[in-house]
Sequence to fold (251 residues):
Amino acid sequence: MSNNGRPLSPHLSIYRWPITMTLSILHRATGLALSVGLVVLVAWLFSAASGVESYIFVVSALNSALGKVCLIGWSFAFFFHFSNGIRHLVWDAGFGFEKHQANASAWFVLLLALGLTTLFWVLRP
Amino acid sequence: MSLRTPLGQVLGHGSAKDGTAHFWGQRISGMALAVLGGWFVWCLAGTTDFSHGAVIAEIRRPVNAVLLLLLSVTLAWHSYLGVQVVIEDYVHRAGAKLAALVLSRFLHTVLAVAAVYAILKIGLGA
Fold:
């Protein structure tokens, strides 16, 4: 729609970057990353059903350096999307909308996701 | 070029009436995935032996097979709803948007069916 040169309301570039905006974008980015991860999860399951050879092919790809980096990335994406998803559900229930609450829960979720990712890989038996 | 104003062209069409189903679908599947995804990652965290035989034996256990089936289908649904929103937000040309939405729906259906088939094949021991 043309706006005939009338001024627009302030957009993203005008605000001091808030932590809540980072989390909003990360939620979408990790969601997309997990959609790609779903393809790999299904490939893993399908290869297991197909037989030993195809299974070894998929697992060795995931065991490569690039595969490991992706797995660590997906683990963070999962823990973040999981934690922030619960944050969204709390909002849907009508709680935590005050600015200081949203900022506090943002940091909590971010640190929780990083902590869970670290625990997942450090505590592996 | 139409003489009608941009506002006049869109007024009166109403909504597509499917927004509420999408909203609830995203949230209900999200709640289910908080449990199912948590269970799956918990299993992964406790698994040391990822050899073919060990993984097959784990998936063959009925509880694991059923939870894995639920996880796969719910995950494909939740992913489809999420990707749909992203496409609608960023792909603006009508034709490309429709093509991307249809492609996404096909791909997610393939993923769900492939996962279900694989789990059933392993679980039923064929």
Remarks:
- The domain at 19-122 of chain A is CATH 1.20.1300.10 (3 helical TM bundles of succinate and fumarate reductases).
- The interface with chain B takes residues 1-2, 28, 31-32, 34-35, 38-39, 41-42, 45-46, 48-50, 52, 55-56, 59, 75, 78-79, 82, 85-86, 88-89, 92, 120, 123-125 of chain A (CB under 8 Å).
- The two ends of chain A are 58 Å apart (CA to CA).
- The helical segments of chain A are 19-50, 52-63, 65-92, 99-122.
